[in-house]
Amino acid sequence: MVHLNKELPEGATADFIYGNAFTNVGEYDVVCVLSKEGLESKTLRTKLIIEPARHSEEEIKFEDATVTYNGTAMGIVAQNVPEGVEVSYAIYNDESSIKINSAIKAGRYRFVAHFTDANENYEPIADRVAYLTIQKAELDMSGVSLTDRNKTYDGQSYTPTFDLGSVVPEGLLVTFKCKDKDGAVVQSCVDAGTYTIVASFDFKKAEDENNYLPIEDMTATLTVNKRVIEIENIITFDSETVSFNRAVHSLAIQGTLPDSVEVSYENNDQIYAGEYEIFANFSAKNANETVDVEQMSAYLIINKVKEHIAYMDSVTNEDFIFTYEAGIRTGLEIDGLDTETYAISYWTIYKPDETPLANNEEFEEDVIYNYEIVFRFVDDNVNDSVILSSARGTYTYVPPTI
């Protein structure tokens, strides 16, 4: 609307030939005729320009967004769009100039919002650009489990499987590996020991690999226990008592061992008197097997024996050989005695009144003396196993013939 810049004189009128009320954008000619009775009319001419209005574009929200892949089309929608304004969207792969129909797969997309206003009285709203990032999704593996398990050695390779009731999502390829205790991959889990079972997952389709995060391996511990061979009820190992006889004595188990079991003895094969604890150790020949009893023990008792030197029953006075030093008897030898086996520990000569004859006392001729000789074995080990009886008898001194 055009307004006069001065008030009309009293009685004057202003008539706008083409009107003076305009709404839409445009350029309008405005003609005003001023009239007053008695005066010549005057025509005023001017132009009215209506410029487009501007929307409050700062209130429009069209911002970057990040979502997770779910197999459906994703998008960014402009918010706070003025009433009457329509929005259309163009989608591009990131910075590509090729338009696509939808954003479904994991990746980065460029969305261009184009605004169309049917009301021409407003300035056009500039296109807006925002980026949509579709992140890779995590595949739901809650229905799959792999827990530790045990088995007994049976000579067969273990075939890994998931826990009972597990359901592997479609589109996955599963690979099992068996690793030994050192982490090395082995062809099979047969022998007794501890293994790690590893389940690896791969996507059958490349597009799934692009849309889902890699699936972490699942691991479980497999323990292959040794097979137990029962021998406790078929084998006995009893103690035994014998007497020393200079032979080797030993203990042995009673019963028949399975062919798959062997026995070894510890502290067996004894000769001399004493009490010995003997151990029978059992082991399976196959390293993947064991026995229910690994060791039994029993006692071997070798008793001491008494021995009499029969040779001393026939000795005569002439068999006694005394040695002297400075007139003192210092030694005694028995002629014919087996000196490789026996030695004299000590000896005593008794006078008729049963008092010992001192070593510095001389024998008296034709006096009958008593003697006691204590022997020992040259082999000290035998001395602990045999009690040698002492020799007793009479001795009559006969002076040497000159």
How would you characterize the overall build of this protein?
The structure is a single chain. This protein is 2% helix and 42% strand. The longest helix has 6 residues, at 206-211. The protein has helices spanning 206-211, 380-383; strands at 13-16, 26-35, 42-50, 65-68, 85-93, 99-100, 107-117, 128-135, 149-152, 172-179, 185-186, 193-203, 218-225, 227-229, 240-243, 261-266, 274-284, 289-291, 295-303, 305-307, 320-325, 328-334, 342-350, 368-377, 386-388, 391-396.
Q: What are the main properties of this structure?
A:
402 residues, 2% helix, 5-stranded mixed β-sheet, mainly beta, 26 strands, 2 helices
Residue share in β-strands:
35-45%
H and E string: EEEEEEEEEEEEHEEEEEEEEEEEEHEE
Separation of the first and last Cα atoms: 187 Å
Shape descriptor? rod-shaped
Largest pleated sheet: 5 strands, mixed
Arithmetic mean pLDDT: 93
> Helices and strands: which structural class?
mainly beta
Helix segment count? 2
- Strand order in space, largest sheet: 4-8-7-5-6
Q: Low-confidence parts, pLDDT < 50 over ≥5 residues?
A: none
Oligomer: single chain
Detail the topology: elements first, then pairings.
Blueprint: E1 13-16, E2 26-35, E3 42-50, E4 65-68, E5 85-93, E6 99-100, E7 107-117, E8 128-135, E9 149-152, E10 172-179, E11 185-186, E12 193-203, H1 206-211, E13 218-225, E14 227-229, E15 240-243, E16 261-266, E17 274-284, E18 289-291, E19 295-303, E20 305-307, E21 320-325, E22 328-334, E23 342-350, E24 368-377, H2 380-383, E25 386-388, E26 391-396
Summarize this entry quickly.
This protein is mostly beta strands. It is built from two helices and 26 strands.
